[in-house]
Amino acid sequence: MKNETVVVIDFGGQYNQLIARRVREANVYCEVVPYSKSIEEIKAMEPKGIIFTGGPNSVFDEKAPKPDFEVFNLGVPVLGICYGAQLMSMALGGLVHHADTREYGVTEIELDTDATLFKGLSAKNRCLMSHTDKVEGLPEGFKVVATTADCPMAAFENAEKKFFGVQFHPEVNHTPFGTEMIRNFLYDVCGLSGDWTMSDYAKNYIEFAKNKIGDKKVLCALSGGVDSSVAAVLLYKAVGKNLTCIFVDHGLLRKDEGDQVEEVFTKQFDINLIRVNCGDVFLGKLKGVTEPETKRKIIGEEFIRVFEKEAKKIGAVDYLVQGTIYPDVIESGTGDAAVIKSHHNVGGLPDYVDFKEIIEPLRNLFKDEVRQLGIELGIPENLVWRQPFPGPGLAIRCIGEITEARLDILKEADAIFREEIANAGLERDINQYFAVITDMRSVGVMGDERTYDYTVALRAVTTTDFMTGEWARIPYEVLDTVSKRIVNEVPHVNRIVYDITSKPPATIEWE
Ligand code: XMP
Which candidate in 30, 131, 151, 171 is catalytic? Predict the structure, then answer.
C-alpha cells in the first residue's frame, strides 16, 4: 500500500473527528494525534500533509497547546483551521489579536478562486465562524485569500511553502464548500491520489492490533448489534482464538436473533463464543415490574452481573473490547443533559472484570463507516444493516408486565412487521421500525366469536440522528397487509394501531 498519510494534530476542538472524517471521505488515510506528539514521531509517520485542528484556547493562554514548531520545517503542506490558523500565524511571525467577544455563526465569505484551496468554488459563499482570537497581520510570504465582513483575513496562504490558514470551520455542514476545500488541499496541494478505502482501515487496524496484543487474551461482550459485532470480528482477525466473546442472551431479543448471532460467529468465523441463555433469570427479576425506568435498571444491572460471572470463569484477561463509536463519544461528553431515559448499552463497562486495558477499535468511526467496515470484514449484510436495537431489548416494547406469553406475541408481531417492510422494499428508507405490545385489551369479533385481546402498536420513524425523528409515511397498503397478517397469524391480538407521533414530543421507544 502506498503511504499517503495525513496527520491531523489535535488541539482539542469539538469538530476534530469531523476533520478526520472529511479526509477519510476523500479516500485519504489520516490519523488524529495529540498536539504533544514529538516531531520525531510525526516524522516517522511520513505525513504527506498536516492539518492543525481548532481548539478552545486562546493562543495567548499560558497553557495554550502548542506543537513542536519544527513541523513547519518538514517540507510538508500544512492547513491550519481556526485555532490552528492563529497558531500558524503566530509561529511564523504574524500578528494575532486577542478579542474579548467571540464571533460565532454562519456568515458570508468572499473566496479568491485563484488560490489552490478554493479552485473551482463559487467566490461568494458561506462559512461557519467560531473564534475569539483573530489573525490581523500575516507572516512574511503570506497573502489573504478569503475575507468576511468581520474577518478581513478569513483565509491566507503561502503558496510556495504550501501553508494555509482558515479561520472558519471547513469540516462542518454549515460551510457548504468545506468538503471541496479539503479535497483541494489533499489532492492539489499535497498531491495525494485518494485511493485509500475501508479495507485499508481494516488491514491497518488488524496489523496494529496484532502487534499490540501479541498472544495476550482479549474479551468482548457481544450484543449482536452492529457495533459490537464489527469490533469483535476485527479483533478476531487480529488475534483469532485468543479472543473470547460472551453473548448474554437475555431472552429479550427479536425473534430468532440469538440463533442468528450464534450462527454467524461460530459457523462463519469460528470465534470462541460463549452464549449464556438466561432468559429465565431476567424474566424472574422482571416479574411484576411495570415501571419503565425500573425495568431498564434491572436489566442493566443483571446484564453486568451475568457478564461478570462468565468473565470470572475465564479468569484474568489483558484486554476488554468495547464497540464504542464516535457518536457515543460525543454524546457522553455533554454531561448536563436531563435524563429522559437511562440508556443502557449491552456491552457497557462491567465493574469487576479483571482486565488491564480497554480497546475501542471503532472509536473514530461514524455509524455508516462501521457498516462499511463490517461489509469489508465479510459480516452478512442483514447483520451489518440491522436497525438500532435498545440494550433492554423487547422489555421496553412490552408495555406493562413482561411475561413469556406476551413476549412471544410481540416477537411474532414484530417479525411480521419487519418482513412486510422488507417485502415493500422500505428497509433502508425507514430508520427504525418495530412492534409494541400494549397493556390494553379491547373487544373484537373473529368469525362469530367475541374476542377480548391485546392491541399491538406499530412504530416506524425516519431520522438521521435518533435525537429527533418523524413518523414514517408508510403506504396504507403496506400497513393494511401488516395489520391483517398480525391479527390472523398471532393469537391474542385483535387490534393494530399505528403511532403517528414524531420525536419530540414522543420518544422513539415507548418506554
Ligand atoms: P428514544 O426512545 O430515547 O430512543 O427516542 C432513541 C434511540 O435510542 C435507542 N435506545 C437505546 N439504545 N440502549 C441503547 O443502546 C438503550 O437503553 C436505549 N433506549 C433507547 C432507541 O432504540 C432509539 O434508536
Answer: 171
Q: Of the ranges 18-32, 37-51, 213-227, 325-339, which one carries the lowest mean pLDDT score?
A: 325-339
245 is catalytic: no
- Dihedral sign computed on CA atoms, order 489, 493, 499, 503: negative
In a domain, 510, yes or no: no
What DSSP state is assigned to residue 348?
Answer: P
| Whether residues 178 and 239 fall in one domain | no
CB of 432 closer than 6 A to ligand 1? Answer: yes
Task: Collapse the DSSP code of 125 into the 3-class scheme (helix H, G, I; strand E, B; otherwise coil) and give the result.
Answer: strand
The answer, yes or no, to whether any atom of ligand 1 lies below 6 A from the CB of 455, is no
Out of 189, 210, 238, a domain closes at: 189
- 88 and 220 within one domain: no
Dist CA 453 CA 410 (whole Å): 13
Q: What is the pLDDT of residues 222-248, one digit of tens each?
A: 988 899 999 999 999 999 999 999 999
Position 352 scores a pLDDT of: 65
Residue 78 lies in domain: 5-189
Mean pLDDT along residues 323-329: 78
Nearest to 116 by CA among 88, 155, 82: 155
Say if residue 265 is exposed, middle or buried (CB neighbours under 10 Å; 0-12, 13-18, 19+): buried
Distance 509 CA to ligand 1 centre (A): 7
For ligand 1, say whether the CB of 466 is within 6 Å of any of its atoms: yes
Tell me the pLDDT tens digit for each residue of 184-222. 999 999 999 999 889 989 999 999 999 999 999 999 999
Told to judge if 169 belongs to the known catalytic residues of this protein, a careful annotator would answer yes
Catalytic pick among 4, 131, 151, 169: 169
Same structural domain for residues 167 and 239? no
Catalytic residue flag (residue 82): yes
**Is the Cβ atom of 66 under 6 angstroms away from ligand 1?**
no
Residue 213 half-sphere exposure toward CB, CA atoms < 13 A: 30
In this predicted model, what pLDDT tens digit does every residue of 422-448 receive, in sequence order? 999 999 899 999 999 999 999 999 989
Q: What single-letter DSSP state applies at residue 165?
A: E
Torsion, CA 82, CA 85, CA 90, CA 94, rounded to 10:
-110
* Mutate which of 228, 322, 341, 431 for ligand 1 pocket (most atoms within 8 A of beta carbon): 341
Cβ of 224 less than 6 Å from ligand 1: no
Res 43: pLDDT: 96
